[in-house]
């Protein structure tokens, strides 16, 4: 495609609402800006590969900034001409405007919880005395910046609740600053940690806390490679420059290092990994002077995470010799895996573990649906918890001495509801049900199983209004992820209600690469098997079409991050499958992803072009950026953000520009670049609402469907 090619979106006529009023969809002209191509050529295993937009990887360059400005002008100029765009935004704002309350947690003499009155950009942390009294604001993140783009990104109290440390993210960045507060007076201490990243906060009594960060990278903090993660201890009252290095080795770097301290304060557990799956495990006894750091697991072939410590024994959740996970017990005297004993053995369903009130809570995924069991510390089953329905339950955490805990329950048509649970009796009582403009009785959410290309059965949950006509004309969003052992279990989205009430269908398949069926399911969607994920997603779209839920003219593909890769790969392999594509913050350049920020840590799932000629050819064979060729592609709205330092925006920049070059059809190719935002976490409410309004407006307009 030549620069400045005028693009026409010709859409036609659609019926709006029961009144059958006809609305004309006007043609929208799109004039793409002129863009420079460089003569950059890379050689991989003897093969030359052009990368003409390599210069876009320099996020600080004036040329890149000018390109961003020009593309946003085109994109927002287009979006502003969609007549019902503002109607969608207003409706989203209406349904979003309800009180949101988190489950409370007891810390010291107070009960703490988050609340958002409806449209606040960030939820506010409140507290009230345990023995009764008025609530008060404890920490309001909305006061940390004028535009709401500064957010809380992790926090921790000391065990006695007297000190509070919290991490702050600016504009969605993964780099955080940590502050310390006297919880009683709410006064900030002088302690401040700058530039922590991928960190937790683990207190050692009231002496100080452990945190993780990288050495400052050369070049841009938003895109430069970060490879050597280290664990430090900050002693209160001392400057950061004096913080003690606890774990980290320049000669043997680990990309991800984390720490936790057991509830009794006796054990420091350290996890170390080079990828998103598999980790070493170390422990240190904190009450013993100069106690060594003891290696428990000396390789990264399995996932191993501490759950609790009791009487010289540590409980570990592991998938070592157990793809669906098991809980084991190990002695501090000899924690070698050869001596581990099962407490909760592996079963057919994948399990995760939490604890509270001296009990374990085992949460099993059965076809992506939650079942929760309560067990004692010997692994004896006490009960299967009676949940409010079929969906996703989470929370189930409390301190050892507490008699109650809180959990949440949700599904695609059940707003997140909080229950108080009596650990002794097993009785649940409603704690908070949101007052929301949505009637679940008007909708249905059903699980189906369809067959992928190689014969594998894949579950998918399809949600829509009751009485839906399967005439192939329903606007449908097919949402997927399929990677990194992440499970997509049913969860309510306030944004989805606006799509559903407009007659839309929302479908979510549980693709291989995810964690719904354990590590084997995950591995079946990694490296040289990654095509399985794309095949699963394509088959999901074909199922929806064959069953009459929708047709290619009314289907939209949506996914973010690894899901953005999914959408990018599928729309290049099957440009005829869908009318619209929404690749968000996607990993789209599979030959260079590992050269930015923490991207090298994703190699467990993807492999890299440096691994072997076979791996290079496989990656190039599906890399969305490298498989664009002159063709008719779906109407595409790429979304990213200028402060995304997880999946750097250059992925989206290069893909969008190359797609504009390759587009031979009439459908628009736009990129929406949010400023002062990152990968997604901490994004203020106002930004979320406007972005979703733009996505829905773009999708419906290009399907020729109005908004009622």
TrEMBL record:
EC number annotated for this UniProt entry: 3.4.21.26
Top-level enzyme category: hydrolase
Family membership: Belongs to the peptidase S9A family.
Peptidase S9 prolyl oligopeptidase catalytic domain span: 491-702
Single annotated GO MF: oligopeptidase activity
Ranges of residues in domain Peptidase S9A N-terminal: 33-433
GO cellular component, one term: cytosol
Gene3D superfamilies: alpha/beta hydrolase, Prolyl oligopeptidase, N-terminal domain
PANTHER family for the chain: PROLYL ENDOPEPTIDASE
Its biological purpose: Cleaves peptide bonds on the C-terminal side of prolyl residues within peptides that are up to approximately 30 amino acids long. Has an absolute requirement for an X-Pro bond in the trans configuration immediately preceding the Pro-Y scissible bond.
Domain of life: Bacteria
Record-linked Pfam families: Peptidase_S9 (PF00326), Peptidase_S9_N (PF02897)
Membrane-crossing segments per the record: none
PROSITE patterns reported for this sequence: PRO_ENDOPEP_SER, PROKAR_LIPOPROTEIN
Catalytic activity field: Hydrolysis of Pro-|-Xaa >> Ala-|-Xaa in oligopeptides
InterPro entries documented for this protein: AB_hydrolase_fold, Pept_S9_AS, Pept_S9A_N, Peptidase_S9_cat, Peptidase_S9A, Prolyl_oligopep/macrocyclase
Alphabetically ordered keywords of this record: Hydrolase, Protease, Serine protease
Originating organism: Indibacter alkaliphilus (strain CCUG 57479 / KCTC 22604 / LW1)
GO BP annotations listed: proteolysis
UniProt protein name: prolyl oligopeptidase
């Amino acid at each position: 495609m030549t620069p400045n090619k005028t693009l026409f979106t010709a859409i036609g006529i659609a019926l709006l609402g029961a009144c059958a009023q006809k609305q004309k969809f006007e043609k929208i002209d799109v004039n793409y800006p002129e863009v420079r191509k460089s003569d950059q050529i890379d050689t991989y295993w003897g093969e030359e590969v052009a990368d003409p937009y390599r210069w876009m990887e320099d996020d600080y360059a004036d040329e890149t900034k000018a390109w961003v400005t020009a593309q946003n002008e085109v994109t927002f100029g287009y979006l502003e001409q969609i007549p019902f765009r503002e109607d969608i935004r207003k409706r989203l704002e209406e349904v979003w405007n309800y009180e949101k309350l988190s489950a409370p947690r007891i810390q010291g003499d107070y009960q703490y919880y988050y609340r958002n009155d409806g449209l606040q950009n960030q939820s506010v942390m409140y507290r009230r005395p345990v023995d009764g009294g008025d609530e008060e604001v404890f920490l309001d993140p909305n006061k940390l910046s004028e535009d709401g783009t500064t957010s809380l990104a992790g926090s921790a109290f000391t065990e006695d609740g007297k000190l509070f440390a919290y991490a702050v993210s600016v504009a969605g960045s993964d780099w955080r600053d940590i502050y310390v507060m006297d919880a009683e007076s709410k006064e900030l201490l002088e302690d401040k940690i700058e530039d922590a990243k991928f960190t937790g906060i683990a207190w050692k009594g009231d002496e100080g806390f452990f945190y993780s960060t990288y050495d400052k990278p050369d070049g841009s903090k938003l895109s430069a490679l970060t490879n050597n993660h280290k664990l430090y201890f900050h002693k209160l009252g001392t400057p950061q420059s004096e913080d003690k290095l606890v774990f980290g080795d320049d000669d043997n770097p680990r990309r991800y290092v984390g720490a936790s301290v057991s509830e009794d304060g006796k054990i420091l557990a350290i996890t170390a990994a080079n990828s998103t799956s598999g980790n070493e495990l170390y422990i240190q006894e904190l009450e013993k002077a100069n106690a060594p750091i003891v290696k428990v697991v000396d390789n990264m072939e399995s996932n191993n995470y501490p759950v609790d410590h009791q009487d010289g024994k540590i409980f570990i959740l592991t998938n070592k010799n157990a793809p669906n996970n098991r809980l084991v017990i190990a002695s501090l005297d000899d924690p070698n895996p050869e001596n581990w004993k099962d407490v909760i053995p592996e079963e057919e369903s994948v399990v995760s573990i939490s604890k509270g009130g001296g009990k374990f809570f085992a949460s099993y995924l059965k076809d992506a649906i939650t079942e929760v069991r309560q067990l004692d510390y010997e692994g004896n089953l006490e009960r299967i918890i009676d949940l409010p329905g079929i969906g996703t339950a989470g929370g189930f955490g409390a301190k050892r001495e507490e008699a109650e805990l809180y959990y949440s329950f949700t599904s695609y048509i059940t707003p997140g509801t909080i229950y108080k649970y009596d650990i002794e009796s097993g009785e649940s009582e409603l704690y908070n049900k949101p007052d929301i403009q949505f009637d679940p009785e008007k909708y249905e959410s059903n699980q189906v199983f369809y067959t992928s290309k190689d014969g594998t059965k894949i579950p998918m949950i399809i949600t829509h209004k009751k009485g839906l006509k399967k005439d192939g004309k329903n606007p449908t969003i097919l949402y997927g992820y399929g990677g990194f052992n992440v499970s997509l279990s049913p969860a309510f989205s306030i944004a989805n209600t606006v799509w559903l009430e407009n007659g839309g269908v929302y479908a979510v398949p549980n693709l291989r690469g995810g964690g719904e069926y354990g590590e084997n399911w995950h591995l079946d969607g990694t490296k040289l098997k990654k095509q399985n994920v794309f095949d699963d997603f394509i088959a999901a779209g074909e199922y929806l079409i064959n069953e009459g839920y929708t047709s290619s003219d009314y289907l939209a593909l949506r996914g973010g991050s690894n899901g953005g890769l999914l959408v990018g790969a599928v729309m290049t392999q099957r440009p005829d499958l869908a009318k619209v594509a929404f690749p968000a913050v996607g990993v789209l350049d599979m030959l260079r992803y590992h050269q930015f920020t923490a991207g090298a840590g994703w190699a467990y799932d993807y492999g890299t072009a440096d691994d072997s000629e076979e791996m290079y050819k496989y990656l190039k064979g599906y890399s969305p950026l490298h498989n664009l060729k002159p063709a008719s592609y779906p109407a595409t709205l790429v979304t990213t953000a200028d402060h995304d330092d997880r999946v750097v925006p250059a992925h989206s920049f290069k893909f969008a520009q190359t797609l504009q070059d390759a587009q031979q059809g009439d459908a628009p190719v736009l990129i929406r670049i949010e400023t002062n935002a990152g990968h997604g976490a901490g994004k203020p409410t106002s930004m979320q609402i406007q972005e979703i309004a733009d996505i829905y407006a773009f999708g419906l307009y290009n399907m020729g469907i109005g908004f009622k």
